[in-house]
Specification:
The structure holds 3 protein chains of 3 kinds. By secondary structure, chain A is of the alpha/beta class. Helices cover about 40% and strands about 10% of the residues of chain A. Chain A has a single domain (about 20-170), classed as Rossmann fold. A 5-stranded parallel beta sheet of chain A has the order 2-1-3-4-5, sandwiched between helices. In chain A, strand 1 (about 25-30), helix 2 and strand 2 (about 50-55) form a beta-alpha-beta unit. In chain A, helix 1 (about 5-20) packs antiparallel against helix 5. Chain C has one domain (about 1-315). The chains are: A alpha/beta, B mainly alpha, C mainly alpha. Chains B and C meet through helix 14, helix 15, helix 16, strand 4 and helix 19 of B and strand 1, helix 3, helix 4, helix 5 and helix 10 of C. Strand 5 of chain B pairs parallel with strand 1 of chain C, so a sheet runs across the interface.
């Protein structure tokens, strides 16, 4: 029965449905974008109605939300947090800085494209993106989850070599533990 | 030759042999002590029957050895724990100095306790009591930590207790004409009506050994400073000798209480009960601020003895039963815990919880034994400790009027969770630091006794009836009739009951189901990691960075309970000591060295005598 | 044999009911909190979704044996206590093991889960977990005092230590114990504020400073199982309070299926009303420091408990 294709489909549907409606967010508020998170969560925009909720530690989190520019120093911490999260996990890049560096495109100590270092599922454009667009980004992620296309952890595992090379270019004193999934 | 003498002789000769053999083969004395104690216990449990006596006379004084069902209970504690501790001791004491000295005194202490159990008259009782006290004193100073502070305190209080006891014994002989314990009990020697001071002096003597407040100040250091293999016996068995004596005296008081002195015995109940309760509370709150595991356990011993005294003080059937049950269970779990602390000390070098942590992976068996014992200590179901606590509460609520004592006891036993957890967390859980990387599991002969005792705790939880049987017989000896007990059902006098076997079933079934679920579900995706793999806000802690949280562990509680910490019995005793010194100083000034002054004193004395002649020699 | 099968069926049914009710209550509280904060809020079944998601996480992290078994301890404590607490008065449908354990046992068994949780959190080695545990244990010493005072008052007043008998007494006399000993009830009610760990007593989790404290290293199936245990536990606490003070639910004289359902309905109404007390209190309160929380419980709640005990004795 369990190996039956249809019942597997039903299980998948239920799992994806609950995954999509219960997103525990690890908001990594490094950049200026962090200021939009309270607005998104509180009464005016109320992200909790979509099941979006803050998580205290990466162990409990599903979504890593990178809000804005990443300095080369903080990149190491972001990677650590990302690796500590448990699969299935998702990453949302928030603001122009995570896409192409934004206004810091030529800065000596920020990274330009987040995608080079960890896989990203959804980008939210803007500088700053307003809470509406943040929520729309989450809804986009929910669609991806329901379709089963959000395979962030798998992509990271499969292309670990490539990501590691990129990461090591930025982080000079490399003292990260191995990622051995 | 009589069996009593044979057992004592075996113990005595093994003490001597242990002393000598260390000179011949180094390290052999531990094995000899173990063999001696084991042989004595085998002989005791197989050959000796309850109720047998043997009389003899020494220097014209009639003495008697015997075994009754009450002391048999304590013999189980002493010999059972003695065998385990001496087995444990072989490896624990390996490589230490003066082994002959240690084992001589170790076996002699056991001999003293066995002698106390055998003695049917006050003279032998007192002789063996002193043997026990002195040999244990010699072990307390064995480690050589500031003898003046640790040993002297123990000696002073023991001497105080011994004098009090001796005075009472001599008075009993003077008044009732017999040294026999049974005669004294039958004659009502401990009653309040005739001679109030006799039971009180005896109780003081026993309270010193039972570490009852305010006579407890010797205990924390004496317990924590002696070698752990001895402390297991010291705290587990020797303190129970005080309970033995108290049990005899109190049972005699309550069962012979005539209507006239029921008021007195009510006062005694309240005073003893509250002393026990306050002992429990104060010892508990001091236990939870300790950073040394050994000291923590020492304070916790005092607290647990407080519960036992409370149980005894109720004088009701359930209360005394609870006290005796707790006495046996306390011997088991505190023996195990001291052994575990000793194993950590042996393997890791220290029991300071700020220095040692995260030993669970390195010493899993020691952790298991400690975990079981801590659960029993905290009184959490379903282990033996809970059975004792349950009966204690039920007896206080259903059979006595001291309802507020229940609250005090409950406060103490809730606060006991704090130090229970602290012990496990401090030594076994928490960060695995680099300093303890080399630590390995303790040798087999240290692990076996701990594991056996821990398993015993589970058995006494499931079938407390195993212990109820000897306890019930012992209580019948004390004068309680129709002591009812069940194999695994606890009853109170209002008819409510708690069924240990159902509790075990429920816990067992749920445990198996849930542990299977959680282990099998997503088995491949579950990874076991070390304690460095924790979420630290993305930071990667460096090698030298310390993530251990051990200092000021219960600071919030300390702040909340600050007024309780202001009082210290030590300070009060120091004040008493200073006051005495001042008095002696003053007395010294009387001796001026001038002959004329002395003559004046004589004259003054005579004048006083003459003035108060009538009132002093009226009859 | 048939009897045993029925009993096991009853036990499983009770567990499922406790689980469902506890989870739903949690969801409703989240919804209500959102409405109070002028938000729309998640649906009332949000907790179930969270649970399914946590259980369907593909990878999990365990920190050794104690960390692995911590959720097991919590479930053991919840289900075992549930088995020994009467759900309905004089019920034949969920008899479980009601007659085989009394209040003192329940009191101690309720600690079992916290101890296991503390041990599991301790083994993770996270300093935040350790701090959370010390806070939780310290606060426990605080709220257990008024709680025990209240329970002892009841036991002394009615000369019984069995919950079943206390419910029977309330049924026969027609008054709830909340009226015959209001002080004890108030003391226990204050203690319940600490037990449910809503604001201002949410010092254990303290998401802002301790990163959810003892839970901080648990995710996936471990967190999910803990949530299950916690939900059952909150239902147990509420049922215990209702049984002791609010007359319980159900009627021993009518044991038909409709009467049982009506009893469950009454139980739900009573428990939900009671549950709102700590929740309401939490909405308007910031967080205490640990020592303030302990002092709080040793202040008026303990005084009320003492008055209740004196009331009971004389």
């Amino acid at each position: 029965m369990i190996n039956d294709k249809d019942s597997q489909k039903i299980v998948d549907y239920i799992q994806n449905f609950s995954r999509k409606h219960s997103l525990f967010v690890m908001a990594y508020g490094t950049g200026c974008g962090a200021i939009e998170i309270p607005a998104t969560m509180t009464s005016r925009y109320d992200a909790e109605r979509f099941g979006i909720r803050g998580a205290a530690t990466p162990r409990q989190a599903d979504v890593l939300l990178i809000t804005g520019y990443l300095a080369t120093k903080t990149l190491k911490r972001v990677i650590r947090v990302y690796e500590q999260m448990q699969e299935p996990k998702y990453v949302i890049g928030f603001g122009s800085c995570t896409i192409n560096g934004g206004m810091y495109y030529d800065s000596y100590n920020t990274i330009n494209a987040l995608e080079q270092y960890i896989p990203v599922d959804v980008y939210i454009n803007g500088c700053m993106p307003r809470p509406e667009s943040v929520i729309s980004g989450f809804i986009k992620l929910q669609e991806l989850i329901q379709q089963g296309k959000a395979d962030n952890g798998k992509r990271y595992r499969e292309n670990l070599e490539w990501y590691r090379t990129n990461q090591k270019k930025i982080i000079k004193n490399w003292k990260m533990p191995d990622y051995n999934w | 030759m009589n069996l009593f003498f044979i057992i004592l002789l075996i113990l005595f000769s093994s003490a001597i042999l242990a002393f000598i053999s260390n000179r011949i083969v180094r390290g052999s004395s531990g094995i000899i002590a173990f063999i001696g104690i084991t042989a004595a216990s085998i002989l005791f449990f197989t050959q000796l029957s309850i109720g047998s006596t043997y009389s003899f006379s020494l220097g014209g004084i009639q003495m008697q050895f015997g075994l009754n069902s009450f002391t048999y209970l304590f013999a189980i504690i002493v010999l059972g724990l003695g065998v385990m501790a001496s087995l444990y001791s072989i490896q624990y004491m390996k490589g230490k100095e003066r082994l002959g000295y240690f084992y001589f005194n170790f076996v002699l202490t056991i001999l003293g306790m066995v002698g106390i159990i055998f003695s049917q008259d006050f003279i032998t009782f007192f002789i063996f009591w002193e043997i026990m006290t002195w040999s244990s004193y010699l072990i307390v100073i064995y480690n050589g930590y500031s003898v003046s502070k640790v040993g002297i305190k123990y000696m002073i209080f023991s001497a105080l207790g011994a004098y009090a006891m001796l005075t009472a014994i001599v008075s009993i002989k003077g008044i009732y004409g017999s040294f026999m314990i049974k005669d004294a009990m039958a004659a009502g020697a401990f009653n309040f009506t005739d001679h109030l001071y006799i039971p009180i002096l005896l109780l003081i003597g026993f309270a010193v050994k039972a570490a009852l407040m305010p006579l407890h100040v010797w205990a924390p250091k004496a317990y924590s400073m002696s070698p752990m293999s001895f402390t297991a016996v010291f705290s587990g068995a020797m303190s129970k000798m005080g309970i033995l004596g108290m049990g005899l005296v109190l049972a005699s008081i309550y069962s012979h209480a005539s209507p006239e002195d029921s008021v007195n015995s009510l006062i005694l109940k309240q005073v003893l009960g509250w002393l026990g309760g306050i002992t429990a509370v104060m010892a508990t709150i001091y236990a939870l601020i300790q950073t040394d595991a050994k000291k923590l356990l020492a304070y916790s011993s005092i607290a647990q003895l407080g519960y036992i005294v409370v149980g005894l003080s109720t004088g009701t059937q359930l209360g005394v039963m609870a006290a005796l049950f707790l006495a046996v269970v306390h011997a088991i779990f505190k023996g195990t815990l001291f052994m575990a602390a000793g194993a950590v000390e042996k393997q890791a070098g220290t029991t300071d919880m700020t220095k040692v942590s995260g030993l669970i992976r390195k010493m899993p068996f020691t952790f298991f034994a400690s975990l079981i014992s801590i659960i029993a200590l905290a009184g959490v179901p379903p282990l033996g400790g809970f059975v004792g606590k349950w009966m204690l509460y039920e007896s206080l609520i259903t059979e006595s009027d001291s309802y507020f004592l229940v609250i005090v006891i409950f406060f103490s036993s809730t606060a006991a969770f704090l130090y229970s957890y602290r012990f496990l967390f401090g030594l076994f859980l928490g960060q695995e630091e680099k300093e303890t990387e080399h630590v390995k599991e303790a040798p087999l002969t240290m692990v076996i006794p701990m594991t056996i005792l821990a398993l015993l705790l589970i058995v006494t939880g499931l079938y407390p009836g195993i212990l109820f049987e000897p306890i019930a017989h012992g209580m019948e000896y004390l004068g309680y009739s129709n002591v009812n007990w069940d194999m695994s059902v606890l009853n109170n006098i209002w008819g409510e009951q708690t069924n240990m076997s159902y509790i075990f079933t429920s816990i067992g079934v749920v445990f198996v189901v849930v542990i299977l679920f959680i282990s099998l579900k997503g088995y491949k995706g579950t990874r076991n990691v070390g304690t460095k793999e924790i979420s630290t806000s993305g930071e990667i802690p460096l090698e030298h960075e310390n993530l251990t949280y051990q200092l000021d562990y219960y600071k919030p509680f300390e702040r909340a309970a600050a007024p309780l910490y202001k009082r210290s019995m030590n300070k009060i005793w120091n004040d008493i000591g200073n006051a005495l010194e001042a008095v002696f100083n003053f007395t010294r000034r009387i001796y001026t060295g001038n002959g004329q002054t002395y003559a004046l004193f004589v004259i003054i004395f005579l004048v006083i005598l003459l003035i108060f002649k009538d009132s002093l020699f009226a009859n | 044999m048939e009897d045993l099968g029925l009993k096991i069926f009853g036990a499983i049914l009770t567990t499922i009911m406790a689980f469902a009710v506890g989870m739903t209550y949690g969801g409703i509280v989240r919804k209500l909190t959102a409405r109070v904060q002028n938000r729309f809020g998640p649906p009332f079944y949000q907790n179930f979704l969270d649970l399914v998601k946590l259980q369907s996480k593909k990878t999990n992290i365990a920190h050794g044996f104690m960390g692995h078994t911590a959720p097991v301890w919590i479930i053991i404590a919840s289900i075992t206590v549930l088995m020994f607490i009467p759900i309905l008065n004089g019920n034949l449908w969920f008899p479980n093991l009601n007659f085989h354990g009394d209040l003192i046992f329940i009191l101690y068994m309720m600690v079992f889960g916290s101890l296991g949780m503390a041990l599991g959190a301790g083994q993770t080695g996270n300093p935040n977990s350790a701090i959370g545990v010390t806070r939780g244990l310290s606060m426990m010493v605080g709220y257990e005092i008024p709680f025990v005072l209240a329970l002892v008052a009841l036991m002394v007043q009615y000369h019984t230590t069995s919950i079943q008998d206390l419910m029977q007494i309330q049924h026969e006399s027609g008054t709830w114990l909340i009226f015959s000993n209001p002080f004890a009830f108030l003391a226990a009610l204050f203690a319940s504020l600490g037990m449910f760990r809503y604001s201002p007593f949410d010092i254990v989790g303290a998401p802002a400073e301790l990163a959810s404290g003892p839970m901080s290293e648990f995710g996936g199936k471990y967190l999910g199982t803990m949530m299950t245990g916690g939900s059952i536990f909150s239902f147990i606490k509420l049922t215990l309070y209702v049984d002791l003070f609010l007359g319980g639910a159900g009627n021993p004289d009518h044991i038909g299926i409709w009467a049982t359902l009506a009893g469950i309905g009454v139980l739900l109404i009573k428990t939900f009303t009671l549950y709102m007390v700590p929740v309401f209190y939490g909405w308007v309160s910031p967080r205490y420091r640990t020592e303030q929380a302990i002092r709080y419980f040793w202040g008026w709640p303990t005084a009320l408990g003492i008055i209740g005990l004196i009331w009971a004795v004389y």
